[in-house]
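Inputs:
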Amino acid sequence: MVTNPGRRKRATIHDVALEAGVSRGTVSRVVNDEPYVSAEARIAIEAAIEKVGYVPNTAARNLVMQRSQAIGFIVHEPHSLFLEDPNIGEILLGANAALSLADFQMVCLIIDSERDTDRVARYLSGGFVDGVIVVSARKNDPITRIIEKLGLPSTFVGHPPDLRQLPFVGIDNRSSARAITERLLATGRTRVGMIASALDRDSGADRLAGFTDALGPLFDPALVARVPFYAYADGVAGMRALLAAEPGLDGVFAASDAVAAGALEALREAGRSVPGDVGVVGFDDSAWALRCQPLLSTVHQPAAGLGERAAESVLAQLRGEEPELGGILLTTPIVWRDSA
Amino acid sequence: MVTNPGRRKRATIHDVALEAGVSRGTVSRVVNDEPYVSAEARIAIEAAIEKVGYVPNTAARNLVMQRSQAIGFIVHEPHSLFLEDPNIGEILLGANAALSLADFQMVCLIIDSERDTDRVARYLSGGFVDGVIVVSARKNDPITRIIEKLGLPSTFVGHPPDLRQLPFVGIDNRSSARAITERLLATGRTRVGMIASALDRDSGADRLAGFTDALGPLFDPALVARVPFYAYADGVAGMRALLAAEPGLDGVFAASDAVAAGALEALREAGRSVPGDVGVVGFDDSAWALRCQPLLSTVHQPAAGLGERAAESVLAQLRGEEPELGGILLTTPIVWRDSA
DNA sequence: ACTTACTCTGTGTACGTTCACAGATCGGCC
DNA sequence: GGCCGATCTGTGAACGTACACAGAGTAAGT
């Protein structure tokens, strides 16, 4: 073998058959746990497998079976995701756990450039995976088009791209935001504001809508600070703006934990105590929440659960089941700590 | 096809040949960009490929070529890694970039349980990948054994497991620690201590050794606080211990950025100003470094570079080149900010 | 005219597996 | 004894590709 000088040739099913003194068919039956094999043949074959160190060749098996027993996990724009969003790791683990249980192999594909897009497209078309889980697809994503064209079973984590009818798993940002705001109001706060991030994304807009729902007639647009991103710096800026608009503020809902952390910094700077003067709540239950002083009350994102459900959804499609039309929304428990 | 009801049958090289009115061989030559194809045949075949929507079947190609054009990226203990270590994402991206350039597909394999180990082992044995990059292998890792047994080209990121002679890519913790300590001393500090973490790991022990190197005759064992982990809480505890041992301390080298962040908290608590009273430096240049107040001076871990070099090392082995015996050590620039 | 080289094309075989089918053996039952 | 079903085994396809080889055609050099 010229291409791989150091690799010794692998044992095939034929070698096992020869060693055990039976035919390929019988060996295949033993390997795949099928009935109609005599006890003595089974024992001889198992011994032969052990002796020659036989491992089935997956390429050959895939070729004839027309499946790969693997599911792709596609991550787009990893720079921002890996650095900002600790959830991606959890989603990945959740998906891996569910696939593992079904004896499927997860294959994690990173798209980081134009070049990657083409290669991943080829990879998907090449029959390497039986289905895909897509995290953070963009609008007009060529990968999305290819998945549709191939008819590849797929489930998206987060909101579905464009307006296509593709199965997805997500959380209900709106009712979660409403719930934590109501919980904050229940502590007796009367002037509650929000630092609203990323209003150009579904998640950001929905969190603001939930906040509005919770306040009802009490809602005051002057108590909403609009900031571009979910980041720490946005929290600092947003909080300063809110304090300037309403010094008597006694509660704040921050659109993310990082934003909440920034808000805490601005409050400290302004000499307000938390939760004494102002109650603060966040969203995500990320690492930030435990890094804050005081510990943050927040909405828990069931990241592992999202991955798990996405995996199950793909597997269900593989079994021929129809995916839920409206997508799957997971519940988001409130984690009440010290900041409110 | 019973297993995949919705999938329409894929076009094969045969369909293309029929459509273009040539033979399989000629189509194969066009697909693989080989010479000795007439212009008209090439045009007809390209049109036919477009028309029938042909994509090469990777399983079939792998079977006959005895390779997969894919490299595995194995991550062990992802829980701790994804949560504690932001570097893993960078390493992944660096490796992906290098593999992408060589037109290899990266396949990311997560090992999260016993079950995963077995499945990944089967996956590797199944010829799905031509080589592997291993991040954070443990001692006596069954995966390591399997890699050795298969003779699979591999490169480890970080220190090599056990005492085996396997290629690896890492950083020189010792000289990096020495360099940043010397830089701290150069600011005129005279009583410099260290919070030393994870002395049971190579990285932790080496960082302490580098610190000792830098101080030379000035080294005072009383100014080393030993803490178990690289975490924030360890930094708080370590700093308190150091201040108790030597109130006149004017510089600290923390074994990681998280530890440094904890140290800053303890210093604030004790009423010391940074960098006025005490200069603080960390290690890693992780997200912590920019989250600290003041911004942390630290050692930059070239995480993307580690991934890149690991990928290149595996590709070199695939070309039949001998791997460097002592492993590859990358340089670690010092990032000087405000904390010292 | 005859070799020689080069260009282009089609065919057969191999890769390692699964599956359908055809036999073979055996026991029980009418 | 003949028939049937159950159990067990071997054989020949097929999956879709790459590669070696043979052969045809063309052009140039001797």
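The longest strand of chain A covers residues 70-76. Flag for discussion at group meeting.
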